[in-house]
């Protein structure tokens, strides 16, 4: 699933998902040999695009770090 700013989520088949129709939401995933680790984040930062994008990056890097360290939960 890929989330495009900020109006809809598009899957490879082109379906829209209602859970990404508001600002401050991101769905993250990291795949590894142990499985696919996912995390959904709602920042609560409203329409502040810069703050949301910054928090999305922090959450994505945190998930990646947790997977690499073996701390992420399936």
Would you kindly provide a brief summary of this structure?
The chain is an alpha+beta fold. It is built from one helix and four strands; from the N terminus they run E-E-E-E-H.
Polypeptide structure, described:
The protein has 74 residues and is of the alpha+beta class. The protein has one domain (2-69). The protein has one helix at 49-69, and strands at 2-4, 8-10, 25-32, 35-42. The protein has a two-stranded antiparallel sheet. It has a two-stranded antiparallel ribbon with strand order 3-4.
Query: Shape from CA axes?
Result: elongated
Total count of strands: 4
Main sheet strand line-up: 1-2
Which assembly state applies to the chains in this document?
A: single chain
Supply Rg: 13 Å
How large a portion of the residues is in β-strands, by DSSP E?
25-35%
**Sheet having the most strands:** 2 strands, antiparallel
Report the end-to-end length measured between terminal Cα atoms: 17 Å
Number of domains: 1
Instruction: Please tell me the overall pLDDT.
Output: 76
Low-confidence residue ranges: 1-16
Q: Could you spell the SSE succession in H and E letters?
A: EEEEH
The DSSP helix count reads: 1
In percent, how helical is the residue content? 25-40%
